[in-house]
Amino acid sequence: MKNMRTFINVEDIGPLEKALAEAQEIKNDRFKYQHLGKNKTLMMIFFNNSLRTRLSTQKAAMNLGMNVIVLDVNAGAWKLETERGVIMDGDKSEHLLEAIPVMGCYCDMIGVRSFAGLTDREYDYAETVLNQFIKYSGRPVFAMETATVHPLQAFADLITIEEYRGYVGTVARGRENSASAEGNLVPPYPRTSVPPRKLKVVLTWAPHCRALPQAVPNSFAQWMNAAPDVDLVITHPEGYELDPKFVGNAVVEYDQKKAFEGADFIYAKNWSNPGVTNPADYGKITSKDMSWTVDTEHMSWTNNGKFMHCLPVRRNLIVTDDVIESPNSLVIPEAANREISCSVVIKRMLEAL
Amino acid sequence: MKNMRTFINVEDIGPLEKALAEAQEIKNDRFKYQHLGKNKTLMMIFFNNSLRTRLSTQKAAMNLGMNVIVLDVNAGAWKLETERGVIMDGDKSEHLLEAIPVMGCYCDMIGVRSFAGLTDREYDYAETVLNQFIKYSGRPVFAMETATVHPLQAFADLITIEEYRGYVGTVARGRENSASAEGNLVPPYPRTSVPPRKLKVVLTWAPHCRALPQAVPNSFAQWMNAAPDVDLVITHPEGYELDPKFVGNAVVEYDQKKAFEGADFIYAKNWSNPGVTNPADYGKITSKDMSWTVDTEHMSWTNNGKFMHCLPVRRNLIVTDDVIESPNSLVIPEAANREISCSVVIKRMLEAL
Amino acid sequence: MKNMRTFINVEDIGPLEKALAEAQEIKNDRFKYQHLGKNKTLMMIFFNNSLRTRLSTQKAAMNLGMNVIVLDVNAGAWKLETERGVIMDGDKSEHLLEAIPVMGCYCDMIGVRSFAGLTDREYDYAETVLNQFIKYSGRPVFAMETATVHPLQAFADLITIEEYRGYVGTVARGRENSASAEGNLVPPYPRTSVPPRKLKVVLTWAPHCRALPQAVPNSFAQWMNAAPDVDLVITHPEGYELDPKFVGNAVVEYDQKKAFEGADFIYAKNWSNPGVTNPADYGKITSKDMSWTVDTEHMSWTNNGKFMHCLPVRRNLIVTDDVIESPNSLVIPEAANREISCSVVIKRMLEAL
């Protein structure tokens, strides 16, 4: 993948073993490739809010010696016209055919955050905004969560699972409480005693009070399907089926307890109805079933499973306090690995410039 | 101009031939003067929104090795008192006599964006905010579009015209569509076969749905009047006369077709009524005449003229899709040159520190 | 203090003579310790607005070679849940037990701005937000004005007083008007002819139209009590008593004229009622007595006293135009020293990493 110009899907990163090895190399020396970014500029374009992505991406780019320009585009204040032939006398003051090439003029690489609107499935799943940047900016473009994917998160999740692969069935070493001051300081993890079997990883839906995009579960499924030695089970209420292109060969199990049995990793996430079964339900909340909240009883069904979530998380909707604060909660190391996954992606793109 | 402390008017940059040569030198090696900015800080102060200026100025300053601090002053939230003797118990929490010197404390150079209010011509044309920064900051100050001028844009326009001077009367080489991915990647342009005559450059008013400042046409006129081997014609509906100090010796032609005949470059821009003919009209929209929109018929009157606009542009009000997407549209290379014009200005100011 | 992990109170900086000597050393060569910050990242987290602190802290961190990430947390838009057991289905989308460790993941040092709410004295004086960052971020944390303290300001004030100690009873040399372009360019000040007596420093309350926190007077009192060769007098209307832990051994004098007599430095500031005498008054405005506004008559009672204020200042409420613009007004040099005080603090924290 010397020629990486986009980072959207798992294929873009090439062989995952190599990507994981690079992640560990960079985690051991975050500034090793700092020469690559000299006099290169990353432009981060946010159409939606961000905490983890904003911070970790800036950090990764700076680790690599880049300059960073952050552009917050308030979606309300700056609407881009996308059609030709329109007399632009309304609320859209610029056409994307000018705006995007201009942004490309002032940088060497672009990161884009643009959430799903959750009203028009076709528009969202066509990744319209992301593809406009790819087509018109003239620059390599990576997704910082877009309408249907969040690959930097999924890659960080994979790195985290690999780091804890050697501790399957045990309580995570040296972690008494994930929220302690030390919780975020996970040392480079020795990859020892990897079990000679596939990991059982479960992606579970959980209830939420607001309609959320499918980007995180989509990418998580895609990456787990591609991951070495992982069996993915997806569990959710009926009607919440993810898009088949992301589900791939994963097992879909509507009985959450069955899904959890023997699981090594539980990855909880809410998503709104993907509209696969019933297109009219797209983006809607069609279940608030609180029996899906991950609590200690749920975790007791697993193989001393590790708990994961991409954050931010609504406690006691998605997961109880006890579970997220338990030694087996990996939410903070997982967030910390966002810096690492992003570093690998930017490094690859810099090498391909 | 070793002693450049302000950048507002064309005189501030000194001989234009020298400035243009420096622009080409920097375009060939954007990082050549990086040592100049070491341990120097640019403060960019925005009283109004910005896309191109924000990005290109940051890029230019980083090219020159500077640190950059961006300060967004929401004009509504942070009002500065300007009068003495006022008991400040209203909505203004700080006096400019404190705020501006303090901002000067933490930087070596200041860029200011502050648009015209378009209600009080005298206040706007006195460049009150800009001059307060010049007087009280203790730092060199450049305009990032202020009430009546936008010199970084005009300088970028001049650089662009010089780059395409060798292609007068022809279709711009290697550019099939200005909005293509390659449209913004104009190579350093060889300045060959310059015609042995003056260029005919036309600044044309075009209709718009909102009242816009006169800063861009003012500066464009000022710079074209000063440019080597350029004849400037200004065309607009009667009543839209620009301030005489910017019009200078340019020809004003109310018949748009006559103005366009034989033109080498068409520079389209809307501006609100400058209030020169009728002071009561200042800042108002007194024409929305759509016959002024630049379309292919308009361009057919020219000498295969190149189309320019500072962006953002409202399509099919200012210019049709066909014209702005044509090979002769220079809007993207023009925007790209904002990085170059700004680099020259900052370099000069750094040399004068 | 090789081990500085927090910067909140005066004790955190260790012996003040040493800190002041370091301040002068850094003022003479702001980039001397630039190697310390290489590949280190400061995260500045703002729950409230900032001008001076935002700019001076960025400048200080860049002087020291650090990367800087600025995070504006709109207190309204991003509310953090702090309780356990709550079903988070309301307006709080993240729990501090996740948010804070995550922020710590992406940086090496944190600065926090979080003002007092002024409704719950106990909550404010417990420094709840600041202490959450200290407890859960895993990083060294310094206060960029928090609920009850503003130590970067107080340290800058002390540096300024030391710089002008040699000029007690005289008009400040070479300063005709603090708001002139040169007003902010105070050269490294020779510390000569220090009088062989203690300085009389007066902290005076002054009226204001809005309820302000006590952070600035609290820290100023704390630092002056600890300062070498300073006698602190605090003067304010009855009922405005500051918290005893900050007042310490300072003299409290309700007669403003008596307090000002023979003063070498007048430090004016408004604060809302601290609720010490009457808890129900906490955070309220219980006096708007305009006779406390510092004018030329007030200053005539002093020993040709220097005038100080942390800014922003409401003129003609806190202080008249004549006084703040007089040669003896130190408000601009004081603001300039914010860069210096912050540089010393960040340098110490970098050394302790």
Explain the overall architecture:
Three copies of one chain form a homotrimer. In chain A, helix 10 links the parallel strand 11 and strand 12 (306-308). Chain A has 353 residues and is of the alpha/beta class. In chain A, the strands form three sheets. In chain A, strands 1-7-6-2-3 form a five-stranded parallel sheet, sandwiched between helices. In chain A, strands 10-9-8-11-12 form a five-stranded parallel sheet. In chain A, strands 4-5 form a two-stranded parallel sheet. The first copy, chain A, is built from twelve helices and twelve strands. Chain A has helices spanning 16-28, 52-63, 96-105, 121-125, 128-136, 151-164, 215-226, 244-247, 256-260, 296-300, 321-324, 331-352; strands spanning 6-7, 41-46, 67-72, 79-81, 92-95, 109-113, 141-143, 199-205, 230-235, 251-252, 265-269, 306-308. Chains in contact: A-B, A-C, B-C. Chain A binds chain B through residues 39, 41, 43, 67, 69, 71, 77-78, 81, 84-90, 93-95, 97-99, 101-107, 135-138, and chain B through 30-31, 34, 49, 51-52, 54-56, 58-59, 62-63, 178-185, 209, 311-317, 321, 324-325, 331-332, 335-336, 338-339.
How are the secondary structure elements laid out?
Three copies of one chain form a homotrimer.
Chain A: E1 6-7, H1 16-28, E2 41-46, H2 52-63, E3 67-72, E4 79-81, E5 92-95, H3 96-105, E6 109-113, H4 121-125, H5 128-136, E7 141-143, H6 151-164, E8 199-205, H7 215-226, E9 230-235, H8 244-247, E10 251-252, H9 256-260, E11 265-269, H10 296-300, E12 306-308, H11 321-324, H12 331-352
Parallel strand pairs in A: 1-7, 2-3, 2-6, 4-5, 6-7, 8-9, 8-11, 9-10, 11-12
Helix pairs in contact in A: 1-12, 2-12, 6-7, 6-12
